[in-house]
Amino acid sequence: MDDRSARGIAGAVSRLVSAGSLPGGTRLPTVRELAAILGTSPTTVSQAWRTLARAGVIVPRGRAGTFVLEGAAPTVGGARRYRRVTRSPGRIGRDYSTGTPDPALLPDLAPVLARIARGNLTTSYLDDPVLPGLESALRARWPFSPEAITVVDGAMDALDRVTGALVGYGSRVMVENPCFPPLLDLLELVGAEVVALPSDAAGVRPDAVREALATHPVALYLQPRAQNPTGVSMTEHRARELAELLAGTGVTVIEDDHAGDVALAAPVSLGRHLPASCVHIRSFSKSHGPDLRLAAVGGVAATVEAVATRRLLGPGWSSRLLQAVLAELLEDPATERTLADARARYCARRERMLDALDARGVRAVGADGINLWIDVADEQVALVALAARGIGAAPGTPFEAAPLDGDHLRVTVGLVADELIEATADALADAAQV
User: Span of the secretion signal (predicted)?
Assistant: First the structure.
């Protein structure tokens, strides 16, 4: 055991439980016995035991001792990073912190809703969770042939449920750095140990993955295109490189294709090379509308079916009415024209803003999607300076899975109106260089 802190001890024990080395019912050493074995203080071990008990990994039974329970159900943590991203200082007139699509560039749902509302799509609580027509449309668009597919209530719902099926307290998982803050909050909530991976213009670096595999992670989380916040899209060559490294390791790849049809890059997935080790999540919020609250989950049957089965004890299924709307949108030529226009306009806004910032001496990246990742001299000073001009941006710190070099802001450039790009670039440059 390399880390003999309370958190390190708790993580090590939980990993042994998850691996089956400490099955349910196993009596654990006393606090003093384990402290003597590890050469640490009884107080440290007591803290670790309390953490594991709160997480639902172990249970104290008085004089009988402390015993292992099956599974881990952590109840600690919170959405602290997510709250920081969505809380801007001052009074904001133009809020570019949200990471949400431009409502003016979304498909018009009204005609489709009117057509769909005439029918009754739910005849029984026991109907299949996914409409057959939608499943066919999804499979035709999937980047690989999934063993199973289901539909849930958005990408974060998908990440939550897949994580619950695969990741236990103390499990090590690999993530991109920088990374989507709600995912980091979720992993903290379940007690996972995050291994941060740097990226380049082609995606997560293979050398970083190779090194991280020595820590025996159980999962790799990726956003394969228009990564939030950097806009990086993984290349097919990089996907093959990563697949070669991961083959036979037991690592499950969890892909969050959050940008969907507003991304310029074509869908790329490690599932093409590792179909038995990949779960791919496809969101339709940024492309077809956040209020649809739909994302598809496809890949390894055991994981997808575990998600669908667990939902039977909660919401049961995602609205089949909204599923029917999405199915029709996916086959609608007018919707495809709307999406093509949205892709082009988001691209134009990104490129204009990148050029404007470069001309003002500000470094920013954003090759795809709706966000820019901007270097600033001081994150907090930049946020306050922008707020003083009625502009909101997201701080960079919540995106850090591990400390980065320098300070950053994420700006949702997809929300910047064309006529405001130059003025916004002036404000961003002034704030970045303060």
Answer: none
Rounded Cα distance, 325 and 115, in Å: 9
Cα separations in angstroms, 5 against 15, 35, 104: 15, 11, 52
Q: From CA 299, how far away is CA 148, in angstroms rounded?
A: 6
SS3 state of residue 220: strand
pTM: 0.83
Domain 6-68 fold is Arc Repressor Mutant, subunit A (1.10.10)
* Contact criterion met (CB below 8 Å) for 393 and 90: no
Q: Which residue has the tokens 């881990």?
A: 72
In the numeric block, which tokens belong to residue 51? 């953490």
CB neighbours of 365 closer than 8 A, spacing ≥ 6?
230, 231, 232, 372, 373
Going from the first residue of the chain to its last (434 residues), give the mean pLDDT of each consecutive group of 10, the final group possibly shorter.
Answer: 83 79 87 91 90 81 83 52 70 86 93 77 77 95 97 96 92 96 93 94 97 96 97 97 97 97 95 97 95 95 95 90 93 95 97 98 96 95 90 94 93 96 97 89
And the tokens for 13? Answer: 């024990």
What's the pLDDT score for residue 76?
Answer: 41
CATH 1.10.10.10 domain extents, the chain: 6-68
Dihedral Cα 136, 142, 147, 149, nearest 10 deg:
-60
Query: Which one-letter amino acid corresponds to residue 324?
Result: A
CATH 3.40.640.10 residue ranges in the chain?
A: 110-331
- Looking at residue 207, what is its pLDDT? 97
* Domain 80-105+335-432: top CATH class: alpha beta
- The CATH code that applies to domain 110-331 is 3.40.640.10
